[in-house]
Amino acid sequence: MAEKNLTADRESAIIPALNVPESIADNMALFLRLVRKVLEEFDPSLRATFDVLLADAVRASADEASETDDERAAFSELERIIDGLDERSTTLLMRAFVAYFHLANICEENYRVGSLRAREAAVDTAEPADPINDITVAYRQLVEECGRGRAIALLQRLEFRPVFTAHPTEARRRAVEGKIRRISELLAARSGLSGVALAENERRLLQEIDALFRTSPIAHKKPTPVEEADTIVDIFDSTLFDMVPDVYRRFDDWELGEKAGTVPPVCPAFFHPGSWIGSDRDGNPNVTAKVSRQVAEKFRGHVLARLAEATETCGRNLTLDAVSTPPSDALVNLWSHQVEMSEALTARALGISASELHRAAMLVIAERLRATVDRTADVMYACADDYISDLYVVQSSLARAGAVRTAYGPVQRLIWQAQTFGFHLVEMEFRQHSLVHRRALADIEEHGRWGERGELEPMTREVLDTFRAIAQIQRRNGVDAARRYIISFTKSAEDVANVYRLAHLAFAHEADVPVLDVVPLFEQVEDLENAVATLDAMIALPEVQRRLDQTGRRLEVMLGYSDSSKDAGPTSATLVLHATQAAIARWADENSIDLVLMHGRGGAVGRGGGPANRAVLSQPKGSVNCCFKLTEQGEVIFARYGDPTLARRHVESVVGATLLQSAPSIEWVNTETTERYAPLAAELDAASRERYLDLLHTDGFAEWFSSCTPLAEVGLMPIGSRPAKRGLGAKSLDDLRTIPWIFSWSQARVNLAAWYGLGSACERVGDLERLRAAYAEWPLFTTFVDNVEMSLSKVDERIARLYLALGDRDDLATKVLEEMELTRRWVLAIVGDEWPLQHRRVLGPVIRMRLPFVNVLSVTQALALRRLRSGDLTPEERERLTYLILCTVSGVAAGLQNTG
Predict the structure, then answer these.
(1) What is the pLDDT of the chain when averaged over all its residues?
(2) Which of 76, 565, 597, 703 is the most buried if burial means most Cβ atoms within 10 Å?
């Protein structure tokens, strides 16, 4: 009992001692108590070991700025205890820590939601702009700087295009996500409970936490691309379908005041989601034309069913009769058309609402949507625009009859949802490697278009069938459902021409060729630097010229953050990408191109990660143009869109920045500081790239990297349908996808891909005041340094040494550790912190709070890897060790977040 009391005191003291906000501390202590109770019920000895490990981990991380003798002793003790555990106990303990990280994430989400709601409740509605809603703040600034007319024009151009991808960085099982959601709901409900209700809440929390602990964090198999599409469906159901119109309405509420919901809206439907899930076939043989058709049909059927349900709900509430709300002539005509189309549907609707024509018409519209799901030819809608047109007829009739609150309330909400999601839910974007297209064309040239001179390669047949799948999806779901085709590793305009050639070769009849917007993806540094020349040649292609004429000269270009970072290092990649964007923006202006830049960003800093709104505001003049498009992938999707309140905040934040980026003051700052600090940028680029390439080009680096990180084990995780390698024949780091490269370094607590080379670059510059001035004045450098500091806050040199030692190359380990220390020293000096994130009032303590728990998992993973690398194991021992490592991978990913 004494031990229990001692550990109970410890549990209540550990969290608050780290100076996190009170609500986070209280909830973390609650969950720690419940996890310990679950472990006590499962095995008291396991709970006792959990306590000892946690106490040592906390003691080993007590001092932020420098390591003390007591910390070194505690870390050694932690390592000794873990190394002495049997495999079963170790695995179960790691599962307990993994569960606790999921609970820690819930605590942070709960705090952010509560904090946001408290701030919103305190807003004075008499203010000219809602300070919590970044869209209203940005719009007001545009009105002040540009005048209302220009601000309205920019608002009407506004677009936010998140593209959800299936990159395998979400190391959490879908089976676990349901438990996380339920626990989150139970935690949110606690504040209003007491007595028996509070006790019942805790019983249910224990039930869910016990199930979470007993559920393997590792899925039994990799998901198929069709199953991966459920990620989007889940996010659509839980947040997007209702959250997006709420964002539109919140802007209208503030801008229109008391008139909101009684007059036509001022907020356009600017949210246009896209997806690579089921359509990105670059290096993923599991994504086939058949799969793309299946995924498109899944999206189509689901969004139509939700629209039908929402339309019926709206229609059933339209109980406004002809006496109070007489129908317009247009509505009567719509009803007559519906009668002619199907007497059965109209008779049923009229039987429900005999004197309520608005209601009857809406119920028929809902039934037509259901018929569209089943493709019932006589009554189905041909496209979403026809559905929206019918909604406008109902809305106009209601407004003319004086029922403006219904017209611009629930009916407008439906219109916004239809404009946002169409009949496709997301716009599928197809992607393939340029080399695959070149090989397919060579195969066709040798064997004939239809294989008349010999059988075509399976990949060639698949490429041709992909274009047929695109055409079918466009026929069924509309052109917008699948018109973009992205070319990975675009080297020249010929790569663009090849896609159009293949599209035409896939069809016997020209009329069957789908509409295509071919998007070049520039990824490697050389290709980024040559992008303007490639684009110049691209717009001379006849097919591109035709599309420019059809789209008002709109052209989309994609930039890859991942490969450029792996290619030249994070500092050089950041500077090259910024320079490329500026050059493309100037080129677009000179050629009267309506430019859309797509940013292939990930959650990790090494893949362009970090706060998206700050990234937008640091972009060069003319590169945004009120349209921001980026990839949302891995754990970032769940973090940004998993909770409706936080999803709304994320969208408003990014969209506000997208709008504000066009303000003259922002454009001037970005342009002036970029020009002023160009010499500094050149120095940083040259020095950082030299240091980074020196490491990568050291003999044996690729093999060393594989042995001192869990790269091979990450590839075994059933967390995505895509392989870790492209499979195009390379035998080095060139063949490795950037995602496992970055993911593996983060698991090893090195995060090399986020910072390596920056310290040497700053040392070469050697002028701290100059660097501090750049940090204070130059948005690009500010954002980059802040992101690097965040990444460094998750680095642990002691744990990194354990991993790097696995490679048995002291020379390479020394290079990494020396650069780590150099970068840390310079970044902290530039920012003015004694330890990473010291100035961040909430984020700094929250990350520090996580580290003791992460460290237990990381030490366990490093020791298990050491045992696995020894080679003297039976197959059964190897299998058990691999499972243990995979459990820790899942937990470290949950603990560190933005890892991929």
Answers:
(1) 90
(2) 565
